[in-house]
Design a protein that fits this description.
Elements lengths: L1 E6 L5 E6 L8 E6 L7 E8 L4 E2 L8 E5 L3 H6 L10 E5 L4 E2 L5 E3 L6 E3 L1 E7 L15 E8 L2 E2 H7 L3 H4 L5 E8 L8 E6 L2 E7 L7 H11 L7 E3 L7 E2 L5 E6 L3 E9 L1
Parallel strand pairs: 6-17, 8-14, 9-20
Antiparallel strand pairs: 1-2, 1-5, 1-14, 2-3, 3-4, 6-7, 10-13, 10-18, 11-12, 11-17, 12-14, 15-16, 15-19, 19-20
InterPro entries: Fumarylacetoacetase-like_C, Fumarylacetoacetase_C_sf, Rv2993c-like_N
Pfam family, one: FAA_hydrolase
Enzyme class: isomerase
Length: about 260
């Protein structure tokens, strides 16, 4: 099931995307009150092309992991992958949706794309054991962990470099039925493939990440966990377009603009 958050000019709502997106036959069936518990369909239905897709959730926090693909560790100058996940937070104000601009705050500095698979938490949880980790997952979406690379290097920690407004695009929807153990992941810049990998190469897998993260803090419904980026990260500039595709979900596309 593909769960989207959308607007047709009125208040934002959740809905289920049905039909073929590729053939232009998809519709959005509105639901109420939200997908984090029992819900019902309202009966309202609109063609997908007639609504604006929003970020699929508004998380209380985005909890991310760094250096979780060995090839990315090497391209960033590291040798051995980390023994334990390296965690950092992105603020909720960084979240934008498909089609929203990624705003470059300082065109003299390097701003990188980082395509990722994102986990969307479905219920309140804490101290989740690995063997039950998937039971707290609502589904998965595409993410771009936009990073101000020079700020990351100069600050010694990653809050400012990862936390700018618009620097966490999510979407286009939440896929609840994805086999996330080996999903293909690609990032393109102006149509040119820059990252091409699979989640089978994650150093710390999804159940381990959920267990590790939930041991540190309570996870709320709608919270987003970023799983890391593979090799191929690089700069993007105003006027370009970046797209992150995860097989089985879809494609998250965002233009880059100057502030």
């Amino acid at each position: 099931m593909r769960i989207a958050r959308f607007t047709d000019g009125s208040e934002p709502a959740f809905g289920v995307v049905e039909g073929s997106v590729e053939r232009g036959e998809a519709t959005v069936a509105a639901l109420t009150p939200h997908p984090f518990g029992p819900f019902q369909f309202t009966g309202a239905r609109r063609p997908l092309g007639e609504v604006r897709l929003l970020a699929p959730v508004l998380p209380s926090k985005v909890l991310a992991v760094g250096k979780n693909y060995a090839d990315h560790v090497r391209e960033m100058g590291g040798d051995a992958p980390p023994d334990k996940p390296i965690l950092f937070l992105k603020p909720s104000t960084a979240v934008v949706g498909p089609g929203d601009p990624i705003v470059h705050p300082d065109p003299t500095s390097r701003m990188d794309y980082e395509g990722e698979l994102a986990i969307v938490i479905g219920r309140l949880c804490r101290d989740v054991p690995e063997e039950r980790a998937m039971s707290v997952v609502l589904g998965f979406t595409c993410a771009n962990d936009v990073t101000m690379r020079e700020q990351q290097a100069s600050d010694g920690q990653w809050t400012r470099a990862k936390g700018h407004d618009s620097h966490c695009p999510l979407g286009p929807w939440i896929e609840t039925d994805l086999d996330a153990a080996g999903a293909g992941l690609r990032t393109t810049l102006d149509g040119e493939v820059r990252q091409n990998s699979t989640t089978a190469h994650l150093i710390h897998g999804i159940p381990k990440l959920i267990a590790y993260m939930s041991a540190a803090m309570t996870l709320l419904p709608g919270d987003v966990l970023l799983t890391g980026t593979p090799a191929g990260v690089g700069p993007m500039r105003p006027g370009q377009t970046v797209a992150v595709t995860v097989d089985g979900i879809g494609t998250l596309t965002n233009p880059v603009t100057a502030r």
